[in-house]
Each structure stands twice: as structure tokens, then as C-alpha cells.
Amino acid sequence: MSRLPFRIVAGGALTVVTLGSIAGAYAYSHGLGGLLGTQPSANQIVDGFEAVSGKHPGFRRNHAKGVCVTGYFDSNGNAAPLSRAGVFAAGKSQVVGRLSIGGGNPAQADGASNVRSLALRIVTPGGGEWRTAMNSAPIFPVRSPEALVEMLAASRQAHDATTYGGNPGMDAFMKTHPEAARFDQWLRDHPPSSGFDNAAYYSVSAFRLIDRDGHAQDVRWRVEPDDTYTPLADAQTHDTDFLERGLAERLRQGPVRWHMVITLAQPGDVTNDATRQWPANRTQIDVGTLVVQREEPQIDGPCRDISFDPLKLPDGIAPSDDPLLKARSAAYAESHERRVHEEQRYAAGK
Ligand code: HEM
């Protein structure tokens, strides 16, 4: 699904433009599960991505366009009292990551994307492993997989409507899901960054840190760039591939750094609703520095076969009750299964 025609046809209907963009990134089909109000299966979800974006063998079914990165995470030890995970002990852990844009089309134009993403696999010297996939928006448009199914069905109608005029599906969705307006407003207030290097990336969902005595603290995390945020320039909106090119140019000057910051929830803060941010006065702890030293094409780079499953967590980090997490884990596994099989068939000449 190309987002550019959608933007043009949608014209002044900014709500539809921005939601249409994220819907492109998280598209489901009209799966039976969604229609019946039950959890959609991973198969239905991934079939849905293919229905919206077309089938692109060997590529991720969402966030298909991206680049592999490598480097390390240098923990300063500040989170060690809160979590027994080895990654938070002071010292360095290896990182293989991926920077991407949403959507299932690997040839999508960068200029049409208003959300950037960063996925990390962090492996400690002791072998503990933490995977996280983050977006440049701190909230998500919907709070449940069922609502996501509805939104994506609506976005599909809106996409079809680019050909036939009007967007009744998305208008109807916005009426029944007013929570999605928060995400829409956030995108309007925060133009996308001019590069991969100068965006912040957020866990969106809440997680729990578990200390050595078994005490749990609800948290969210983000990485804040050392590079100064600048908004996308007008000329970039017409540029298909500036993100990877810009990152390669930036890395020629030296490593790119982000500070990892953990936000501590207070009792009563909701942990099962990714459409809501916590109040701004919550305690924030800088827990270390993410350093990206190198980028490589995803086609044969070290991130190619990794599934950045948000539930692949080390001892000391646990999931929250956010219902998006299980749906994501299942869908990422199904997408991974399909693309790795396709690679194998291609390699075998079948
Ligand atoms: C129920 C909600 C969601 C579903 C069904 C979903 C689905 C998917 C799928 C199928 C992939 C491709 C996985 C692969 O082939 O390895 C993917 C990638 C990704 N998703 Fe989601 N997603 C959801 C929510 C989110 C949220 C809330 C975030 C932000 C925190 C997010 C961030 C990402 C990122 C960064 C990637 C790219 C990972 C990589 O580089 O391999 N997703 N998503």
C-alpha cells in the first residue's frame, strides 16, 4: 500500500491522513476474529498485512523497509536497583538493531512516512537477551487487538476510497473510537524527524521491572537522541530513500547515540492502555547510552532473520497487562516464519 496517493486524495482531511498512515503500518484484513469480537489469530493478522500491502516474499509483513544497525548498549547501572536483568548492570552489551518505517511495502517512499521505528536485540556478556521494537510516537491509536482489526478494516475502506472518493470507513471508526484522536493529535503536533538519527523511539506499551527481591515496578522506556531533532524538510517529502542514505552519511562522521530513559509509573497509572501517556511529572531515570556504529542493508545484514518480538525478555523484565503485547508476539512470529521460509525456498531455487 503506497501512502502517497492516500495523502493526496485525502487532501485537507488530516485525521484520515495521519490515521491512514499508521493504519498502513498496522493493517489487518477483515479477519473473522475481528468481526466476531474475538482475538484475531496470527494468521489472520499477517494475511491482513499481505492483503493491504501486497505480498513481498522474504520481507517483513510490516515495517518491511529498513536497515540493519550494530553497536552496543552501555549501561550506567542506574536501573540495577529496579531490575535484576544483566543488561542493567553497569557495562556494555552487544546490539543488533533495525531502523525502519511502517508498512508492508519494502519500496515505500520515506517521504510518505510519519512514524520511524527502532528495534533492538541486546545481548549481555552473560548471554541474557532483550528484544524491543519501538516507534517514534509514544502512544498507539488503539488499545486492543480487536479495535486494531476495526481500525485497519476502516483504513482499508479509506484506502479503497482513494480510488472511488470519500472515506466513510475511517470517519465511522473515529466516531466509535475517540481514543484514536489522541494519536492523531500527537502526529499533528510532532512532525516526523529529518532522519533516523534524530528521532526518539518509545516502547509505547508498559512493562515491569523485577528486582532481586521480586518487587515489580511498572515502567515504559524510550531512547532520546543526542542528535538534535529537526522536522522533515519539504524537499524530503518527495525523496524516496533519504533515511538510509542520511544515516550512512551521518555514521561517516562517527557513532550515533541515544540515552535510554525509563519512566516509573505511580500507583493508578494505567498499564493496559497504549493510547494514553502517563503524566509528565513521573520519575525519569537515564539508564545508559545506546551507541550505533554501523549500518548495513537488511537484505543480507545481521538483522535480517531476527524477529524483534516484544515478549522476548530477560529475567528481570516482564510484560505488563497490555493486550497488544501478546498479539504482537504472535504476529511477529508468523511474519518471521513466512519470510524465512521464502528465503529458504529462494535459496533452493524453488
Ligand atoms: C497488535 C498490534 C501490532 C501488530 C499486530 C503488529 C504487527 C507487526 C508485524 C507482523 C511486524 C513484522 C515482524 C517481523 O516480520 O519480524 C511488525 C514489526 C514491527 N512493529 Fe509492530 N505490530 C503491532 C504494534 C506495534 C507497536 C505498539 C509498536 C511500537 C512500540 C510496533 C513496532 C514495530 C516495529 C519497530 C517493527 C519492526 C521490527 C523489525 O525491525 O523487525 N508494533 N509489527
Automatic annotation (TrEMBL):
Top class in the EC scheme: oxidoreductase
Transmembrane segments: none
Catalytic center residues: 63
GO biological process terms, semicolon-separated: hydrogen peroxide catabolic process; response to hydrogen peroxide
Name of the featured protein: Catalase-related peroxidase
PANTHER family per the UniProt record, alphabetical: CATALASE
A GO term from the CC aspect: cytoplasm
Known EC number: 1.11.1.-
Cofactor(s) this protein cannot do without: heme
Entries under SUPFAM superfamilies matching the protein: Heme-dependent catalase-like
A molecular function (GO) term: catalase activity
Function: Has an organic peroxide-dependent peroxidase activity.
Origin superkingdom: Bacteria
Family: Belongs to the catalase family.
Keywords, comma-separated and alphabetical: Heme, Iron, Metal-binding, Oxidoreductase, Peroxidase
Catalase core domain ranges (all copies): 38-350
Residues annotated for heme binding in this entry: 332
